[in-house]
Amino acid sequence: VLLNASRVGAAEARDGLDRVDVDLRGVEYERDRVREEIERCEDYTSAFFPSGLEPMFIKAGISSSPAYKELDILDVESFREAVSEEVLSALPVEEDESFEFAQTIARLEHELSEIQQREALLAQLTKDRDALIKSKKEIKAKFDAVDVYLTDFAKTSNAVASKVKDVSGTVRS
To answer: What is the per-residue burial (b if ≥16 Cβ within 10 Å, else e) of 27-62?
Structure first.
């Protein structure tokens, strides 16, 4: 009975080990595929620039580096000072091969959040400006109405003054 139980336990352990081994191979395969994709993304210039023609494209102003490297984002030191500890603690350790990629992604996400904040501020300022313009137009309309009333009043008072002058001139005579 003990012998059968140990055989069954060993068989279950072998099956578990086989499942873990299959899972490990799957993870390694995916890791290798991700690495290949990363290399393809980093080396995409070779697909766009036929060999020997790259200098010609560079002279024409066509970039040979990935677009994210040309962005005007914070350098690493400024980024580390600007972000919270939570963001920095979410990064893998520096010895990890994915550290640079994770840091670049974090820098890009930080830049995106900064841009979104600036866009929100711009939207608010635009809304405030539009409200001020509307208020200014309302004040101008009221001013124009008062100007019309004053002009009419001046005409009327001039007419009354001339009538009073005419009446006083006829009364004196």
So the answer is: eeeeeeeeeeeeeeeeeeeeeebeeeeeeeeeeeee
**In angstroms, rounded to a whole number, what is the distance separating the alpha carbons of residues 108 and 102?**
10
Whole-number Å distance between alpha carbons of 79 and 100: 13
Rg (CA), the chain: 40
Q: Using CA atoms, how far apart are residues 85 and 74, in angstroms rounded to an integer?
A: 17
Helices (H) and strands (E) in the chain, counts: 7, 0
- Locate the domains of the chain by residue range: 1-65
d(C-alpha 43, C-alpha 149), whole Å: 75
Q: What are phi and psi of 60, to 5 degrees?
A: -80, 0
For 85-144, write each residue's pLDDT tens digit: 888 888 888 888 888 888 888 888 888 899 999 999 999 999 999 999 999 999 999 999
Cα–Cα distance for residue pair 26/21, rounded to 1 Å: 9
Kindly report the CA angle at 26 between 24 and 32, in degrees rounded to 5? 100
Question: What are the pLDDT digits (tens) for 40-90?
Answer: 776 665 555 555 555 555 555 555 566 666 667 777 888 888 888 888 888
